[in-house]
Amino acid sequence: MxxxxxxxxxxxxxxxxxxxxxxxxxxxxxxGECIAEIVHGKPEAHLIAAAPDxxxxxxxxxxxxxxxxxxxxxxxVIHAEAEKALAKARGEGxxx
Length: 96
Fold this sequence. Notes:
By secondary structure, this protein is of the alpha+beta class. The protein has one domain (9-89). Helices cover 41% and strands 23% of the residues. The protein is built from three helices and three strands. A three-stranded antiparallel beta sheet has the order 1-2-3, with helices on one face. Strand 2 and strand 3 form a beta hairpin. Helix 2 runs antiparallel to helix 3. The chain is elongated, with a radius of gyration of 16 Å.
């Protein structure tokens, strides 16, 4: 990645908007730096927080498909990265 704050990013609930929707901020977990303020809705917050992981998983897939197809043992690792990133985007296993 280049030009943006590296992951991991984490969603943090901050309260409720006037609409009643939960508000979240996205923080860089290493030092708590705020990446995005006032994200309306938990699903949106999780998707934004998963951005670095999604980027890494997709980058790995592109690398894999550029490799010799006979070296397919890497595919399990790439599949696991993609599954982890998608689970994070869905907010699975998160307590916030």
